[in-house]
């Protein structure tokens, strides 16, 4: 409303439906003139001038809409690899995501969103899930203050990289309080599918350029988005009416599946198998299949899965002159024999660092943690670390048992709602979305035992958005049921 008054005061003779365009043109013109003056009199580099000419109008567009701002951040988070891995993907993409830009940008967005709520007098329907998210982020902020009090080394810089990911869970509220909640949810999930393909192509491109003969790991965190893509495709295969949609979904999963295999992430391998089995149980429960039908479907799925695995291994063996077979067998052995983990270097490093972090906790610190910003010098990797390769251990280290309780409560409420919906929903599209979100979060909870995907990765914003979608469907169904009961 205020923006309309401003535009009508500046451009009273322009029709109201065209004022935004004219304001943008005026803004670009002024920007270009300022840049020309800077180029003439202040010796500013041309590259900087071009960046300003492009960037300022973009900022103008962003500030005209909370939703546009939100979508831009999602795009920046999703599609690009981290800048620290730029040498691996050199030639595929000229830029990468940098947390030093992303996190301050996200904080600015949250402030802008808060003003949006205040000016429009929007009220937030918090709900139980919302309260658990608020509780967890408040504990994270308290932990950050505790880190400042403890005067840990580099606490401000490290805290920025550790606190902001926890605050990203507040994206849940951004989604449920703006027009984003009115959008078709399918756009979001199809976007995740496209992003997963892009990430898959990045890894396939990088694979032959990084010690292919030794079949070395290609380090990246982007691969974790594949869990949500896999879960979405499973939902499409089970419940989508369109046969073309099913075929396209299966085809796009080929590069993603290959990427997961060459990532050498054993936790991801295990979780993908588990969510396939769990998705079948959900499907059988909803369809009320007979035992003979269940056995038949399981047999077909196992045969298809085995065929895909053997085909992928054969292709990798030809590409790596047999080196892939030895590496894959070594990684798979840990599934067959748990005792192998005792001598596995990766598992040993993770457990040793967790013991190091826990050894710093004394007395009440077990309840409130050491505070965000605390670090350890890894005696097995010989460098300082501010994170652990276990999300739950990280929370205990930084926020104590109280923080872990709040963290698990957040996901406990989420799973309660998801299971309720999976039992009650009948709409095919809504089942696909809820099933995808549920399976993805189930998988992440397991993968989080081996890395910091739930407390440190930039995809937390996407996890929060998916949780908000599930909550919106839950509230819609609950309200519909309430109306029916009143009748």
Quick summary:
The chain is an all-alpha fold and 487 residues long.
Q: Mind explaining what this structure looks like?
A:
The longest helix is centred in the last third of the chain and has 34 residues, at 391-424. Strands 1-2 form a two-stranded antiparallel sheet. The chain is built from 19 helices and two strands. 33% of the residues are buried. Helix 2 (19-41) runs antiparallel to helix 3, helix 12 runs antiparallel to helix 18 and helix 17 runs antiparallel to helix 18 (428-447). The chain has two domains: 2-120, no CATH class; 127-486, no CATH class. The chain has helices spanning 2-10, 19-41, 46-63, 66-79, 99-120, 127-149, 155-167, 171-177, 185-206, 226-239, 243-262, 266-287, 291-319, 323-336, 345-358, 365-368, 391-424, 428-447, 460-486; strands at residues 376-377, 384-385. The chain is globular and about 60 Å long. 72% of the residues lie in helices and 1% in strands. By secondary structure, the chain is mainly α. Strand 1 and strand 2 (384-385) form a beta hairpin.
Instruction: Quote the distance from N terminus to C terminus.
Output: 39 Å
Percent helix:
over 70%
Shape: globular
Total helices: the number is 19
Give Rg in angstroms.
25 Å
Portion in beta strands: under 5%
As laid out across the biggest beta sheet, the strand order is: 1-2
Helix and strand string, N-terminal first?
HHHHHHHHHHHHHHHHEEHHH
Parts with pLDDT < 50 across at least 5 consecutive residues: 5-14
When the domains are counted, the total is: 2
Indicate the structural class: mainly alpha
Query: What is the count of β-strands?
Result: 2
Mean pLDDT, all residues: 77
The major beta sheet can be summarized as: 2 strands, antiparallel
